[in-house]
């Protein structure tokens, strides 16, 4: 009986504890995590894309089977990608930063500009974005050696469904494996080949 009383007393103290003295709820974590993601997008991503010569980075995920980097790009309120999620990062050059676009129905708590399309029209939306931005080099998540750099972009989408962009720019695509493997954005295993 004493244990139950002690446990109840401890729980009531923890429930009333200030946020800095306890683990935050998801709702309390959401604005903090969103701010961290936005800061990385605004400060780290432009330099990485410029340094590696990538004008556009395309990440494609499927619901409950996300690309390995999706969790580092989406707020905590997005538990998984939706049906098909297509995220596009387009480097605008100079100090103008990186444009963040979500093709489909979700802007992920305002982190991305929404290119609204129906689920069946997302590939067409991607083709439009690519044609409008006309990137010289497009990074996609492919790797023959490192599974965490080999997202669904490669396996189910780009090899099989590259057709929407194949005629105009498939030759521009290259693996973003080495390009974005940094502690800041996508941590790498110590055994990762370079």
Features of the shown structure:
194 residues, alpha/beta, Creatine Amidinohydrolase, Chain A, domain 1, six-stranded mixed β-sheet, 7 helices, 6 strands, disordered C terminus
Structure description:
The chain has a single domain (28-175), classed as Creatine Amidinohydrolase, Chain A, domain 1 (3-Layer(aba) Sandwich), CATH 3.40.350. 38% of the residues lie in helices and 16% in strands. The protein has seven helices and six strands, in the order αααβαβββαβααβ. It has helices at residues 2-15, 26-43, 45-52, 70-73, 122-133, 152-161, 163-169, and strands at 56-62, 84-91, 98-104, 113-116, 138-140, 173-175. The protein has a six-stranded mixed sheet with strand order 4-3-2-1-5-6, with helices on both faces. A hairpin with a 6-residue loop joins strand 2 (84-91) and strand 3 (98-104). The longest helix has 18 residues, at 26-43. The radius of gyration is 20 Å and the shape is elongated. The termini are far apart.
How much of the residues is beta strand, in percent? 15-25%
Sketch the major β-sheet: 6 strands, mixed
> Average pLDDT across residues?
76
- Shape call: elongated
CATH H-tier superfamily: Creatinase/prolidase N-terminal domain
Q: State the helical fraction.
A: 25-40%
DSSP summary, beta strand count: 6
CATH architecture: 3-Layer(aba) Sandwich
For the biggest β-sheet, the strand order reads 4-3-2-1-5-6
The helix count comes to 7
Q: Over the alpha carbons, how many angstroms does the gyration radius reach?
A: 20 Å
Tell me the domain tally: 1
Please provide the ordered H/E string of secondary-structure elements: HHHEHEEEHEHHE
CATH class: Alpha Beta
Task: Give the oligomer, counting copies of the same chain as homo and different chains as hetero.
Answer: single chain
Q: Give the CATH topology.
A: Creatine Amidinohydrolase, Chain A, domain 1
Instruction: Give the low-confidence spans.
Output: 152-163, 179-194
Structural class: alpha/beta
């Amino acid at each position: 009986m004493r244990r139950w009383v002690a446990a109840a007393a401890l729980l009531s103290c923890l429930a009333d504890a200030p946020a800095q003295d306890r683990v935050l709820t998801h709702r309390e974590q959401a604005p903090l995590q969103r701010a961290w993601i936005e800061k990385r997008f605004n400060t780290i991503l432009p330099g990485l894309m410029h340094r590696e010569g990538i004008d556009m980075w395309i990440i494609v995920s499927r619901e409950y089977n996300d690309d390995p980097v999706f969790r580092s790009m989406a707020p905590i309120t997005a538990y998984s990608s939706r049906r098909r999620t297509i995220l596009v990062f387009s480097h605008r050059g100079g100090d103008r930063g990186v444009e963040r676009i979500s093709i489909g129905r979700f802007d992920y708590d305002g982190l991305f500009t929404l290119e609204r399309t129906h689920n069946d029209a997302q590939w067409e939306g991607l083709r439009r974005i690519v044609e409008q931005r006309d990137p010289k080099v497009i990074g996609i998540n492919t790797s023959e050696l490192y599974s965490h750099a080999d997202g669904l972009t490669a396996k189910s989408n780009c090899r099989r469904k590259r057709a929407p962009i194949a005629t105009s720019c498939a030759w521009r695509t290259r693996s973003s494996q080495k390009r974005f493997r940094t502690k800041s954005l996508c941590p790498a295993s110590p055994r990762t080949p370079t």
